[in-house]
Amino acid sequence: MTATPAGNCGSTAEGSEPAAAGTENLVSNPQNGSAPVDLAEAARQLELAIHDARVAFDCIGLEHLERAHESVITARAAIDSAETVVRAALASGQVVTPEM
Prior knowledge:
Layout: H1 39-61, H2 65-92
């Protein structure tokens, strides 16, 4: 019986190359009086991090350690991106009202 990989533990998706070196800090923080920060982007990045963490977990279980390592790195990058957006919202003094 052959195990079917969960998530993206199989082959690497076409076009899913890692970001170019030195591009991780290319996020601009808004200045006072500029447009509000889109916190939906932070939520989207956190969803991506959750997905990548699950893929890494599955890959570890399937002993695909190189793919697990890649997924851990991308999960961390997504978390860092979400943190940058939230930090920008805090720095701009943006007031957030929940949409429930």
